[in-house]
Amino acid sequence: MTIIDTAPATTITVELPEAFDERWSRLPGIQVEGRRISIDPAEYFFRFESNTWLVADWELVKSQLLDVDETTQSAVEQLALDFVRANASSTSDAAQVLATAYEVYAYLFREEHLAGLGLPQITPAHLRMLREAATLMALNKVELDGHISNVGPCWFFPAATSVVFDLDDETGGMLDEVYHGGWFNEHRRIESIKAHAALGGRLVHGCQSVPDQSGGVVAPYGASMANFRDDLAQFKAGWIDQVCAHRVTPAA
Q1: Domain range for residue 97?
Q2: What is the pLDDT of residues 103-149, one digit of tens each?
Q3: Is 199:124 a contact under the CB 8 Å cutoff?
C-alpha cells in the first residue's frame, strides 16, 4: 500500500491493494485509475470543514483487540473505547485514513461470511462494492458535539452505490441492509465494533432501515447523537438528490 500525497485541502491521492471500480469517477471530484484514487476535496465533498481524523494502527488492532473477549465487567464497546484512548491519534493525512479504512473493510466484508449471511443473492462482487464504498465513507466526520463536519457522496450509501454500480432500488436497498445491519449477526456486530477502533470510533447510522436511507459514519465515542440527528435532517434530502442526479441509468 502506497500513500502518495496528502496535503490538507489539496488533492488526496492513495494507492490501495485492490483496484477500485473506475465508475467511481462518475461522482464529482473523484478519479479512479486501478488501485490509484484521487479526490479533490473542493469538488467531492458537500461539506468539508475538518482535515483531521482519528486513526489507530490496523496491525495493532489485529494483534491487541480483535481476539479480546468482552466480560461481565467490560463490554466490547468499553474494550474498543479503551483501545482508542490508548492507541488512536489525530492525523491530517487523509490518505492514511483511506488506507486504514481499506484494511478495516477488507476484514469486515470478507468472503468467508457469505455462507452464513442467509442472502444467497449477495455475491463476492457485492462485497467488493461494500468494501469500496465504506472505505471512501471513512473521510466523513462527526464532531464530539454531534456536528457533521465532513460530508461526501458516500455518506448516502445506497444513493452512491446506485450511481457507481448501476444498481436498481431493490438491489441497492438489499446491499444497504447488509452494510447497515452488521450482516444481521451479533458476532459480526462485535467484529465491527472492534475493527472500527482503527478509525477512532463506532459505526452509527442516521436511519433505522432502508426506506430512510440516511447513511452512516464512524463517529467518536461520546458524540452527541441528538445533535447528529438534527444536523443530518437539515441537509440529507437535497444532497441525496444531488448524488442520484449522477445516475447513468434510471433506477428500476
Answers
A1: 49-244
A2: 999 999 999 888 877 778 889 999 999 999 999 999 999 999 999 99
A3: no
